[in-house]
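input
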Amino acid sequence: MMYLRQYKKDDAKTIISWCEDEKIFRKWTSDRYKSFPITSDDMNYKYFDCNGDCEEKDNFYPVTACDDGEIAGHFILRYTGGDHRILRIGFVIVDDKKRGQGYGKKMIKLALEYAFKIAGADRVTIGVFDNNKPAYHCYKSAGFKEIQMEQEEICELFGEKCRIIEMAVDRSEYERK
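output
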């Protein structure tokens, strides 16, 4: 059975081991790290000493997903908009040996449950690169819908231009299910 818990410094070694390929690493981190590969110390420094690069205090929550006591996935939560009503999910990754088996969907559904039932969010957002079809379909199957942005966000990874698809779930949609 999958459950979520607070990220621990010891989790970093396992999580970064899933990113042996730099392309996977860059998609996972949205290119937020300057170098590849990173170490456990690099990850923990960003999370604990730099507050995940969030300016506001109490706004960055790294989460580890466990299944039968073993680390199965990871993501972060952070508030956007300044009023603690919108939570954003980011840095989503699943153990590469468990991909394609529904672990990502379970983890994201647990994140939504936490966001709406415990954190009191009114909306949860997530972004996904348009060339990351498995993640897009995972988020969609967990209840996310594409939202229109005023300005399309484009980034470049390894010489390839990628559009960022913004997705969201509102509390009212979540409660109807």
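quick obs: The mean pLDDT is 93.
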